[in-house]
Queue: 2 jobs
Job 1
Amino acid sequence: MAKVVILGAGIAGHTAAAHLRRQLSKEHEVLVVSPNRNYQWVPSNIWIGIGRMEPKDVIFPLEPLYKKKGIGYKQAKVSSFHPEGSDTEHKPFVRVEYVFGEQKGIQEDITYDYLINATGPKLAFDLTENLLPGTNKTYSVCTYDHAAHAWSGLKDLIGKLKNTNTTARILIGTGHPKATCQGAAFEYILNVEQELRRNKVREQVELTWISNEYKLGDFGMDGMLMRVSGKPMKSDELVEMVFADRGIKWILGAGVTKVEEGKAFYENLDGEFKTEEFDFAMLIPAFSGHGFKAYDKANKDITEKLFKGFMIVDADYSSKPYEDWTVQDWPETYQNPTYQNIFAPGIAFAPPHSISKPRKSKNGTDIFPSPPRTGMPSGITAKLVADNIIDSITTGSESRKHKGSLGNMGAACIASSGYGLLQGSGISITTFPIAPDYKKYPESGGRDLNKTIGALGLAGHWVKLSLHYAFIYKAKMKPFWWLIPE
Amino acid sequence: MAKKISRFEKFVMKNPFIQFYMFLYLNVKILSVVAHGHGGTR
Ligand SMILES: Cc1cc2nc3c(=O)[nH]c(=O)nc-3n(C[C@H](O)[C@H](O)[C@H](O)COP(=O)(O)OP(=O)(O)OC[C@H]3O[C@@H](n4cnc5c(N)ncnc54)[C@H](O)[C@@H]3O)c2cc1C
């Protein structure tokens, strides 16, 4: 009998738990440890942030589902890793602390045969001075409650604009010089723009995009060349066309370092220190590791064997210049090299480097996007980790047959750019591979032009909405859920 | 200078009948790009 412990129940953790449970016989234990009692379909938070969905539309409670499916669940958070056990416990274990109910505050050591760390990122608001969602007129859409809060701030502003005929400034983008998740902020600014038009206050608002990207449409993926209506087009040209059409201004190469009531302070690549004022802002924070600690059998700190901010996996972490980066640097099995029964799919693994070209301001400040790891790769990497563990358990010999490098994996980025069955719109981009392979595709910016396409229009909104329903159906493990791909 | 979205392009982007076919095309494309395999690089 084997015991698989999964830390985190986001897209990665929940996907891994679902596949493990479906394919492993009941004699094997599958246990999920996660502090949030709800599963949330994060990509739809955008629509909560404009009041078109409510948190209840994107979440459901995990415990009843796990009970029904035979998956163990502890509402707790992991605090330390003990991959060699201790002097009193011969098996490897993680120390967790309950966060809810009668057991709140109580610590427990949970042993495992296989461990999947799918704890995603820490939303590091603390890395930008005074950037706290709901304060200083600044909001976030990174969680469903943040997004609901953002909507209440935006609704108040729209109400004020309607009643007073005054003007306002809205600032949306990245809130840290090395933030990622530009795609989510991009979706939000376009949705906000449409809501302002729907409420007939668009003319009163100056809407500005602020980002650490060097060019528009970088999205932390070094931009991309794609086929749009059969013709090659760069992502910066596409985004510029959309922003110009929607009357959105932009500030690029901007590293926001501090926020005050209605003011964002940033440094740009020219080394200038500037301020942008706003009446409402949505700024994505830096994503960092959770700061977990790890100890060996003798209780000696071995954190550096497991973590480099995020968890160390089978990537090539040697430092080399941008020109020497290759797709081979990216991990394939998400397995920790020292403790081979530990894996980290989704956002939890430490990337070897960024995908976008690193840039410094004239003052030496790093200002460029960190690599994004979106929902689809999070699900795919979680499934391949689960498949390797399933093979290892069922065959009795360690399997690493299932592989998936970001350099050999596609992604679909369906950016909603307005809500509504007939009034909605979306920007659909498929990219292959996610990390550009400049050797294989030297003529097309590292991407396969037959698989990297862009399309604008209502269909994109329908796709995003159908993905919302399909992925929630899948996450609820309804009949034949596994037929829906990650 | 940003490329402008023409009136005709806007018509295509908003027309539900054309977009229905686009919807089908996008679903097939997404499935072929995302679900159609992934692997290692080494
Ligand atoms: C607003 C927004 C919109 C997005 N839109 C899209 C989109 O349209 N398409 C797309 O592909 N991607 C999108 N993404 C990205 C996508 O949501 C992420 O890639 C995905 O959620 C990552 O999954 P994950 O499981 O690795 O991490 P997470 O979803 O962050 O899950 C981490 C889990 O770990 C748990 N956890 C945290 N700390 C601990 C601890 N100490 N112990 C145990 N558990 C812990 C958390 O509670 C959570 O359950 C969007 C992201 C945002 C923020």
Job 2
Amino acid sequence: MAAFSSLTEKLQQAFKKLRGKGILSEKDVSEAVREVRLALLEADVNYKVVKEFIGKIRERAVGQEVMKSLTPAQQVVKIVSEEMTELMGGAKSSLVVADKPPTVIMLVGLQGAGKTTTAAKLARYFRNLGRRPLLVAADVYRPAAVQQLQSLGEKLKLPVFSMGEKVEPVNIVQGAVKRAQKEGYDQVIVDTAGRLHINEQLMEELKRMKETAEAHETLLVVDAMTGQDAVKVAEAFHEKLGLTGVILTKLDGDTRGGAALSVKAVTGCPIKFIGMGEKLEALEPFYPERMTSRILGMGDVLTLIEKAQSQVDKDKAKDLERKIRENQFNLEDFLEQLQQMKSVGSLENILEMLPGNAMGKQFKNLKIGEKDLIKTEAIIQSMTIQERNNPEILNGSRKKRIASGSGTRVQDVNRLLKQFAQARQLMRQMESSSRGATGKLSKKMKNKRFHFPLFR
Amino acid sequence: MVSLVPRLVEGLAKTRKGLLGKMGDLINRSGKIDEEFYEELEEILISADVGVKTTTELLENVREEVLKKRVKEPAKVLDIIKKNIQEILGEGTSALNLEGVPPRVFLVVGVNGVGKTTTIGKLAYFLKQKGKTVLLAAGDTFRAAAIEQLEEWSRRAGAQIIKHQEGADAAAVAFDAVRAAKSRMIDVVIIDTAGRLQTKKNLMAEVSKIQRVVEKEVQGAPHEVLLILDATTGQNAVSQARLFGEAVNVTGLVLSKLDGTAKGGIVIAVRGELNVPVKFIGIGEQIGDLRVFNSEEFVKALFGEEGSGSR
Ligand SMILES: Nc1nc2c(ncn2[C@@H]2O[C@H](COP(=O)(O)OP(=O)(O)OP(=O)(O)O)[C@@H](O)[C@H]2O)c(=O)[nH]1
Ligand SMILES: [Mg+2]
């Protein structure tokens, strides 16, 4: 939670100010937009990019859309995430395949961005697509860079083209393309030495490499933790080389990755892949919506679930997942969930963490204090098993009985039932949206590849 | 190896131009201290990766002083900012912990690709120049060819090296290195470690273990735990400093790749959070491209005065 908290808090404060106000003044909107701006800056989105972006947001927010809306907070979130997702590329894009093989891909970027590892990941990716990749070791500057790629090639059992460290990189790529043509490799992946965007001679060298190899794709590898300079770096590489895409690395950490937005904004090049770990399979397609959620800090949902998960034992979690899926989630489960949430942190906090700001008002009633929890417990405990499993059967007289049994009022029972219905709906929403990609909830969580619609 | 094209920029010259250019322009341009002026100051600081929080605090202090001292000229504001940044960064230089019974044990940590291994090469050379004997421990047993990379640096710097196979236990390498250093009467042991993201609990536990192992072997060890931060990193550096600080006893920061960025403002944000001095800056890929960090000169350089921010 720590990782995202300040960003989320900021946005939430902003939206809280908007929430519940009904009709908004221009000043209200400005206030919220200001908070969004700070949040983006904290996420390392470039200052100038933020300025422009915020301009757009303000325009839309001040317009009818938000000010007349009964749910202004939701509207602002919607506008921000729509605009951001669009800025980051709308739909995902794929890599070019040359009409006449081999397709040549060059990886370029600053020192330490992760080019070598990414080259190996791409080779693996192509092999899995049934292609024949050839890795090319063209980093002759960094000590042992050639060995590094060779060693990765060995691990993958894929060929690495190398001419040692004493040959000019331009000649290496030339040799590599020839080799590929001769031996039927259809995908050439060139690892280049990291270099500074301000080093004109080395930038010139890249340009010659690109021209010699007639590269089809020139991909900028960018460390997702990069700060404000990401813009300058991307601009310089793009200007010199005409980039065709970007790969963001090290997104498995807690960086908010604002560089993604900056780089996309200044180059216009699509982000084609993201690196999610040191393992060679940790290369994933880029989904703009997920990145948006991440930059906006909506990823807290995952943290919440992980946190709750660590408190619940695995079987229970599985059971719960099944119940939600089969719509069998009942009041007893509800009670258990509430109790677990209590041990995770105050309910208020938990609900704040949910992308519920997007759902905001709808779940406002879900806010239950610790005192209410005791009441809730008493109410549920006054129900028969049948009632707990099947709350639909609760009619007036049953409710009366339960109220007197638990020392509460019928309104309390009704409120609880309403909350339960909302919780059930929320859980189903969460569950079904998380299932789209690869299967079961619990398994994905275990693999840390849990893809919330609003995460990563 | 093809010789590296001669470096085009001397590290901090860039840094200097970065803030100076902009601040100078602003001061020359602004007749008075108004909201617009503050907003532009904010832009300059945030664009230098100083971060929202630190920038806001900094500017609050500045506003306060401007009011209190009834400052009217924009130029004076510069002095106030400078003073405030200086306060955050602490004073002068912070020496390496070299005094005491050898071997002195240094542990080098950081996220992937920040420049740990290169910095170790440079640091070994720096210490050799001072007449110390140095032994490197190839503690990155994870990344492909990390051992070979460090070996190359040990050759360049004229340092000894202790290594195991790829995949070996890093703590065992550190242990052997420290033992070897004791029996060979080595002055300084520098332990390389695999890059790791600070959020990976198990990997962070591994660096803690390395620290514990050397603690047991040599009194007071590790005498330095250097956290390498990439100067192009944004606000995540704060998280890096915090979480590495929780896992190991970080004694100093090294700001690498300062030749690439006009900024380095992240160090202000990090120092605003954590009380650990910056000890060195890296200004290139060559063995001599390491400078002792001097905060006064750094601040001067930031604002384009005398000195290069380094010695
Ligand atoms: N321009 C510049 N490049 C640097 C500097 N320090 C290191 N590098 C380069 O950054 C890249 C990564 O450096 P390494 O020393 O391998 O980084 P590391 O932290 O050991 O990397 P891992 O072990 O892979 O985590 C190399 O290409 C270095 O040459 C510096 O001060 N300036
Ligand atoms: Mg290394």
